[in-house]
Every structure is written in structure tokens, then in C-alpha cells.
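Kindly inspect this today.
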Amino acid sequence: MRRLMVALAIAAASMLTACAAAGDSSAPPAADPSAPSAADPSAGDGFERWDLVGLWRVSDAEGAGPETWLFLGADEARLWSECGFQFGSWSAGGGRVLVDLYAHHEDCVVEGEPPVLPWLLDTVGYERAEEGWTLLSATGEVTARLRVDGVPPRHPHTNDDARRPPVVDDALKRALTDVAVPDGLRAATADELVGRWVPVERVVNDPHLEVAADGTWTASDGCNATEGRWAVASDGSLLTAGGPTTAVLCEGSHEPGAFGVARAAGFDGDVLVFFDASGASVARLIASP
């Protein structure tokens, strides 16, 4: 199932063409998603999410070679290295950042296993540097440095558009603007999000969302599964990053998987409500034993 999900994600990527992929990203280390990183509470002050958007050359990162770039766009993260490319999603806010890579070019996969990226898995915070950004672990150690410095080399399975930096325009800024929980609802805390959640309107096939205290989550519509990482920043921002899902026809509910695009979470009484980047309600869930 996991390899099929990766293959579907690669086939759907508009700028990454004709690549065969397999495997999944290594599990992130256990971490308290509510704990402030060394970058909190002040590192995010005065920064907007789109300040991190760009095509960054990576240095001082464990396991990263000299030809490593990190692309952060409106809704996509992409890592370029000597073996090729990998891609996934990312989220940032309040001095915290998550990057989750779930699909990998075939040359990056060895014996069915994707490359291990400890520096990226350890990254939870960021702060401004003289030439770009410094990425930080939960204990304040430098995991990588990002700066603008050239572009990735050409690759036989991509076109030149995939090697260009993203354009920071009004549309991108709107997509990355903070979303507030509407008046009348109470913002959810990290501790309250942990647990198993099901749609308010019960349906067949057991659609559900599992939010774990170690900063990971899994969801199913009853037939198709997806997963990712999550955190709550010091300013209350909900950060989620997640992978693709299969597309099996299902009588379940898509709502549990909406956690992967949620930008805010609040309680309407006992009902947990997720809101997307536009501020629209995308899921209403209740706790399940």
C-alpha cells in the first residue's frame, strides 16, 4: 500500500516527469509536538511563512552532500541531491517548521529503502541567518544552513521548470497566511489533539484519524490510508505535513484525511473542527474510545 501511494504521488507531480519511485521516508524521531523548540518563542516573531519559500542550497547538514538543494513552495517541498530528487510537503509558523518527504526518485532508493535524512527529521525550528536561514533541532543544535546559491543540476527525469525557485506572489502569500479559529470556537491544544477521532456522522468502513503524541499522524477514509507529521507552534498555529493517498472508491469519509491540509483546529463543544488555508471548515470529528 505504501509503495503504491508513493507511485501515485510521483505520477501526479506536474513538474517531475516519468520517474519510477518506491519506498517511504524514515519514521521521524519521537518528539513532543507541543514542546517549544529552541527557536521558540521569539524566532518566529516578525517572520511570515512565505519568508521560507525559495530554492535553498543546503550546507552543514548531516548526510547531505555538496549538491543538495531544498525547494519550499506554496504546498510542496522538494529535496535535490546527488541521487536525484525527493518530494513531499512542509509547514511552518511560530518558529517551528516540519518537512515530510514521502516520494523518492528511483536512484535514491537502495534495496527498497529511501535515503535516511537525519538532519531533516531532526529539524523543528528555524531562525534568520546572515545569508538565509539556520535550521534547528529541538535542543537548539544546527541541523542545516540554507542560502540562495545557484540551482540543482539538470536531471533526465525533470524539466527546467522544476529547477527554478518558486515565485512569491499574492496568491502564494494568501495560501500561506495564518488561519484563525472562528469566534465561538475554542482553539485546540496539542494535548487535546492526541487520540483517535472519527466523523460526527458515522459511516461504514471505519474512517478515522489517529494523532500520536510523538508528532506523527495516520488517517483512513475507510479504504485509503495516509500519514504525516504534526506540531502546534508557540503562537498556536497548527502545522501539518502529510503524504499522498490511494484513490480506491470508498463508502467511508474523506474527513479524517483533512488533517493533512488543516491550518487551524478548534472545538465546537466536543466536536473537533479543522479549517483549511481558506478558512473553510473541512472536517468535524469526535473522540473515539
In short: Residues 2-176 form a domain with the Lipocalin fold (CATH 2.40.128). Confidence is low (pLDDT under 50) at residues 1-30, 36-44.
